[in-house]
Specification:
mainly beta; 4-stranded antiparallel β-sheet
């Protein structure tokens, strides 16, 4: 796997994932902003358009008809998409909605903002 950083994260992943909830702060009484980085890497020999999906963070759309291979340009090349000021309370939910083929996700980073 090649890419700008964290290639070891992109070297693994899940296909067909529909939803993922990550516990952030079980005592949170209100939401706070987070920076969320999603790591992707196309593991299969697919052509652009053969695997597309939408991504929602805490119910809000952040990527529509996302195509990893079309974005990265080749198989086994990692890419990261960063989203700032994502509001979340006790947990963050990531939804992957298939358009064509199965969604893929290699890794997630979540950083609390000040």
């Amino acid at each position: 796997v090649s890419g700008p950083s964290h290639e070891w994260v992109a070297a693994s992943g899940l296909a067909g994932l529909k939803s993922l909830s990550i516990r952030l702060d079980k005592t949170a009484k209100q939401t706070r902003p987070y920076t969320v980085r999603l790591h992707f890497c196309e593991p299969e020999d697919v052509k652009p358009g053969q695997r597309t999906f939408d991504v929602r963070l805490s119910g809000k759309p952040v990527l529509e008809q996302f195509d990893v291979i079309a974005t990265s340009g080749k198989r086994h090349k990692s890419i990261v998409r960063e989203f700032k000021s994502v509001a979340a309370g006790t947990e963050l939910t990531i939804d992957l909605i298939a358009r064509k083929g199965m969604p893929i996700l290699s890794g997630v980073e979540i950083l609390a903002e000040d």
